[in-house]
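ugh ok so i messed up the first submission bc i forgot one of the chains. this is the corrected input, ALL of the components this time, i swear. 235 residues overall. if the numbers dont match what u have on ur side tell me asap before i send this to the collaborators (the ones from the other lab, u know who)
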Amino acid sequence: AQKITQTQPGMFVQEKEAVTLDCTYDTSDQSYGLFWYKQPSSGEMIFLIYQGSYDEQNATEGRYSLNFQKARKSANLVISASQLGDSAMYFCAMREGLNSGGYQKVTFGTGTKLQVIP
Amino acid sequence: DTGVSQDPRHKITKRGQNVTFRCDPISEHNRLYWYRQTLGQGPEFLTYFQNEAQLEKSRLLSDRFSAERPKGSFSTLEIQRTEQGDSAMYLCASSPSPGTGHLREQYFGPGTRLTVT
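and heres the new structure output, hopefully the right one now
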């Protein structure tokens, strides 16, 4: 089974509208973290938002919020008030083994390409 | 700039040649990771260092690949006898150790794009 599943290869959104990018995950760990990264065409991975498995509140960072539904194992990214500069690839990722002192495996999804239309 | 840096940013090589990439992590980060990203995919884990010790290696890392972090600071990734299938973006990331910072994310460098002709 895929650890991280992003079912939307591409999405379009009108400028100033909100958009939700889907992410489901699979883990047997009790302690894990979920991330979203943005990758513009220039290639760098830009951290957007983090949600810990024990966090009771959904994470928010400016225009980004993470809709965390633990029972459904989903961690969707919501971008509000989309801007042209939001056009990029978006990757969902999961870090497992947070309670271990050693390597904490990070697995990425295949990404969603978001295009913001003026 | 105190972010993760990688050198070179682009490398074009002929099949069969050896290439070496360098990564300079954020100075206070003792954990360093290498990933490979092919077109249309997310980054795939290659290897992980804690200080100078290489603690994890992916099965993706064939015998032609070797990584070092000799003094626990910068790291090198060498690919010997390159093949066309090695063409990809090679990403380096670093993170602080537990207890010294938060574990929220890895900080990525800009990547080295390798093209094998």
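quick check: The two ends of chain B are 33 Å apart (CA to CA). that seems consistent at least. Chain B has a mean pLDDT of 90.
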